[in-house]
Structures are given as structure tokens and as C-alpha cells.
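Exercise 7. Given the encoded structure of a 272-residue chain, write a plausible sequence.
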């Protein structure tokens, strides 16, 4: 028997899209615009091992509407990108409001899984130092995975993408998808521990806000790191059937997985 879990980063899309035919561009058509000048300097990434922070519970708003080009920079956005520093843009463009909760938790970063400048989100393991009064969280000392949606360190494809629209999209879609898939927690996807908000100091008088979700820390190896010869034929068939069955159950909830790849699948154990 194979025990599988899956983790996702910006991989949820709430509405099933209609198929669109895509023809070849005409001769001389320029498929991508010229890149904008480099962004102004950014401060160092704060998400490092040992960093401790407090997060407040937060109710994510409804998933943002997804249309063609919905996350691209407008012409005014491109001008703003050239004139304002990335930090000033973050102060000007906070995340969508949602609802503020009543609980707060204290966390410590253990290990960076994916992050730094130029990433869709900052993903790292954390230790729960001071859990909230809510019974939904595990005991103090438990290791979880935090996924922070920080537009300051988003890779905007040389100015093509709007980091604030992208972060709102990723956060609202993932948080709502995890809530909608509650019956599958620990049965194909990690257990979900809620959505949060945290404030990061900019200077002595200003701070900026980013959103975060917490999920179970699933230990194992990714399918991308596994070699087929490590598994029997029966085990390989069971792995593939488990993935297909899970994707079908998620699709029945009107949720489309747009990043179903081996690197996003964790194999916890395999027993023939």
C-alpha cells in the first residue's frame, strides 16, 4: 500500500476554465513585450532560520476572478514600478481585506523549503511556539509548513506580472480550496490549519501586511526525487491510481489543479 500526500503552491483554481483554441501568431507578431527596466533595490528577505514572528488569524475573502491577463501589469502599473521602490509599492497596495480573526500564534522558522527573491511565495517549516486558544491547532512544538504570500519578493517576469494581483489570487484560491476540501485532509492533501496575516516592520513608524496559510508538515520524498526501480510494479500502479483518483475527487468540487507535477507529490511510505 502506498501512502501519498500532496502539497500545492499557487496550484488551486476555483473555477473550471472553458477550453480555448490557440492558433499560430501571424508573421512578425511579437509574442511577449519588451522587459521593463530592473526594479529598484529591495531589503533583504526576512524569512530565515531562527526568525520568530506573530501571526493573527484571518478569514480569506472569496477567490479572485480569473480571466485572461488578470494578473498582468497595466500601463499605470508599469510607470509606478519605475518610479516607486518595491517597499513603497507594497505600502501603497496592501492585500485584499478579508476578515480579521481573534486568535494569534507565535512561530519560529526552522528550514526554508522554497523562497527568497523571485518566487511565487515563501515556503518554510515552522515550529509552533505559542499556539492560539483555538482547538484546531496542534500542541506547542509541532512542526508545520507556512506559505507566505509576499509581493515584495515575487518574481514578476521582468515587469509583465502585477505582484499584488498575483498574491491576492494565490492566497484567496489556496485558502478557499483547502477549506472546500476539508474531507480530504489527511486523505490525499495535508491537513489545513487556517489562514493568517502578519505585519512586517518597514521602519520605526510603518509596517506592511502579508498573508499566510499553515498546513501539516508531511514528511517523505517527492515523486520527482524517487526512482521507478525503487518500487514494484504493483506499488507504481497504486501510486498512479491514487493520484488520478485524488485529482478526480478534487475536480468534482469544481477545483482545478494547475500544478499537478511530481515535485508537488510527496510519497510518505510504500509497502507492497
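Solution.
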Amino acid at each position: 500500500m502506498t501512502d501519498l500526500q500532496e502539497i500545492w503552491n499557487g496550484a488551486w483554481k476555483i473555477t473550471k476554465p472553458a477550453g480555448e483554441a490557440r492558433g499560430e501568431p501571424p508573421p512578425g507578431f511579437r509574442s511577449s513585450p519588451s522587459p521593463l527596466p530592473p526594479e529598484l533595490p529591495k531589503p533583504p528577505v526576512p524569512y530565515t532560520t531562527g526568525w520568530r514572528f506573530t501571526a493573527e488569524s484571518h478569514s480569506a475573502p472569496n477567490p479572485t476572478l480569473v480571466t485572461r491577463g488578470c494578473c498582468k501589469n497595466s500601463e499605470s502599473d508599469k510607470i509606478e514600478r519605475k518610479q516607486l521602490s518595491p517597499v513603497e509599492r507594497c505600502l501603497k497596495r496592501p492585500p485584499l481585506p478579508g476578515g480579521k480573526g481573534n486568535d494569534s500564534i507565535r512561530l519560529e522558522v526552522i528550514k526554508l523549503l522554497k523562497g527568497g527573491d523571485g518566487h511565487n511565495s515563501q515556503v518554510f517549516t515552522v515550529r509552533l511556539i505559542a499556539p492560539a486558544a483555538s482547538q484546531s491547532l496542534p500542541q506547542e512544538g509541532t512542526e508545520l509548513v507556512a506559505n507566505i504570500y509576499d509581493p515584495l519578493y515575487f518574481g514578476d517576469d521582468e515587469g509583465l506580472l502585477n505582484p499584488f494581483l498575483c498574491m491576492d489570487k494565490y492566497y484567496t484560491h489556496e485558502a478557499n480550496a483547502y477549506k472546500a476540501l476539508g474531507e480530504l485532509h489527511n486523505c490525499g492533501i495535508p491537513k489545513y490549519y487556517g489562514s493568517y496575516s502578519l505585519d512586517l516592520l518597514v521602519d520605526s513608524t510603518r509596517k506592511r501586511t502579508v498573508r499566510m496559510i499553515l498546513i501539516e508538515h508531511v514528511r517523505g520524498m517527492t515523486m520527482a526525487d524517487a526512482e521507478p526501480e525503487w518500487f514494484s510494479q504493483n506499488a507504481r500502479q497504486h501510486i498512479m491510481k491514487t493520484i488520478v483518483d485524488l485529482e478526480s475527487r478534487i475536480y468534482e468540487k469544481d477545483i482545478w489543479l494547475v500544478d499537478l507535477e511530481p515535485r508537488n507529490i510527496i510519497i510518505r511510505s510504500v509497502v507492497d
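Remark. The first helix runs from residue 75 to 83. Students should compare their own answers with the one above.
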